[in-house]
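Protocol step 4 of 6: record predicted structures for both targets in the notebook before any analysis. Target 1:
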Amino acid sequence: MAIAPGDEMEFQDSEVSEIRVDAGVVVVKFSAAAVRRIGADAGAETTPGYAQGIELVCTGARVLRDDDACIGKISGGHLLVGGKQMRLLPLPCAIGAPAMLELRFSNGAQFCVEADHWSLRPTGDLMFVESYRC
């Protein structure tokens, strides 16, 4: 099913396939982005799932930390915008303000970047796949 208005990507439990750094531009490619679908009714529970084909593009970027092996499952992370930690981002979104991204990976690696502009966008058709917890 397609990504719907109100769906949000969560850094924790998302999986990164690649981080590219090139001349002030950083691209974080998610092989599986953890997505929360908000229920249509007030007070409804969120539905966990994932989506493939999402990337976070950071321009005016300055890498502060880039450990080897920054790939795989994210154990924690947030975007710090104006003193506010954002652990969830709407899909898609653009933030035209200076911010800092911090990612911690399950393998112990860490990645940190400051940038002036942020864009979380699909690389193709975004499909939401519900996670079934048994």
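Target 2:
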Amino acid sequence: MEQWNIWLERDVWLNVAIVLVATALIYGVLRAVVGALHKRLTAWSKDQDGSWQHFVAVVIGRTSRLLLRAFSLLLALRLPDLPDSW
């Protein structure tokens, strides 16, 4: 029961804030990259005769936002300095 004191430390809340802000920033960057890539591939697939370009554009366009958020969170969790007890 003595482990609850860790939630009162300022460093823990600072690390939580770092993770939340980093997750939001990484998610925004990933969404922008996926959106730009989808637009370019869609435009490129209209100029080409092959169907694989269209398939790749559709797959990238349907990338799950939840998947991007989870990946952003995983990347952001590498940033804070967690204590040894974690």
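Step 5 preliminary note on target 2. The chain has three helices and no strands. The longest helix spans residues 10-47.
Proceed to step 6 after PI sign-off.
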